Amino acid sequence: MTQAPTTAALFEPFTTSKLQLKNRIIMAPMTRCFSPGGVPGPDVAGYYRRRAENEVGLIITEGTVINHPAAAADHGVPHFYGEEALAGWARVVREVHEAGGKIAPQIWHTGTARDASKFPDSNIDSIGPSGLSLSGEKVSEPLTTEEIHGLVQAYAQAAADAKRIGFDAVEIHGAHGYLIDQFFWDVTNKRTDEYGGDLVGRTRFAVEVIEAVRAAVGPDFPIILRFSQWKPGAYDTKLALTPEELEPFLARLSEAGVDIFHASTRRFWEPEFEGSDLNLAGWTRKLTGKPAITVGSVGLDSEFTSLFESGKGGEAASIDSLIERLGRGEFDLVAVGRALLSDPAWVAKIRDGRTDELQPFTREALGTLS
Questions:
Q1: What is the predicted pLDDT for the residue at 308?
Q2: According to the 3-state scheme, what is the secondary structure of the chain?
Q3: What is the pTM of this model?
Q4: Is 178 marked active-site?
Q5: Which of 97, 266, 287, 340 has a CA between 20 and 30 Å from the CA of residue 44?
Q6: What is the pLDDT of residues 40-55, one digit of tens each?
Q7: Pick the catalytic residue: 155, 178, 195, 235?
């Protein structure tokens, strides 16, 4: 079937000196909790392979936790350390590559967003820059400088292992109120040492992570950073209120070694600042000059929090405005989440104009690796 002309921008190759993709579509990271004991099995490999077989340009895995006892939020979240877990991820990489795809792990620490009630037998405290929850309540002691240095090295080791077992890139999770983002946010970072201060000062932990990851993977391995303004339960929060505040924040991260920014928003079509139609990815690309990934309810008629607030999933929706913005060069890549979770063939169907065959997203899709 002839490719629909309106989707042409989505299916142009993406090429940089470090990463070459057959199209502009990314599978967004989505926590699935199907890895008992932190080990991804053949079912996880098959899940990612099916997306690769259906023309996803780059798969970014669900969040995989670094080697720290309080990193994971759930027992079924995959680890990115230990011989057994890494062997499982090596199988995932082989399956995706055999299907013609490319894949990057998202490396993650949940910080004080970790739900301690899910670990009733653990005496390990959740950790954060100041030991504060997302609501500002004390849950543990502030991290020591020595502990921070250990965490930096844990990120670096995960990235080194990603390269060693054959991944094509690595994404650092610096969004959504998790550990790195807790350093960014003044509600959770009250430190008065070199890891605190103003917004630019609060990038220090992330900068050290990025620099350590770069040292671990070398100059030619792509590093993606996911960041967000919003936090769970604080959806209107902004780290930067204006482009002028956002620019030096991004500049520090870019200079540290980020190759691609993954700018997470709930709705891709919403402007980030008054006076411009650019979304967060658009501003990120404009301010840094580096490739940016947009994300947020792509291909669906409702954003993700509606699933939890009302139980509603999401029907297939037009992506015409997305394609227009991509064609104008506002951003470079498009991450698709729930639409791909419920329909492994979403990309192939969009390419072939089979929009009448797109599957709606439902709550039930969360309960299986389709």
A1: 41
A2: CCCCHHHHHHHCCEECCCCEECCCEEECCCCCCCCHHHCCCHHHHHHHHHHHHCCCCEEEEEEEECCCCCCCCCCCCCECCCHHHHHHHHHHHHHHHHCCCCEEEEEECCHHHCCHHHCCCCCCCCCCCCCECCCCCECCCCCCHHHHHHHHHHHHHHHHHHHHCCCCCEEEEECCCCHHHHHHCCCCCCCCCCCCCCCCHHHHHHHHHHHHHHHHHCCCCCEEEEEECCECCECCCCCCCCHHHHHHHHHHHHHHCCCEEEEECCCCCCCCCCCCCCCHHHHHHHHHCCCEEEECCCCECCCCHHHHHHCCCECECCCHHHHHHHHCCCCCEEEECHHHHHCCCHHHHHHHCCHHHCCCECHHHHHCCC
A3: 0.94
A4: yes
A5: 266
A6: 999 999 999 999 999 9
A7: 178
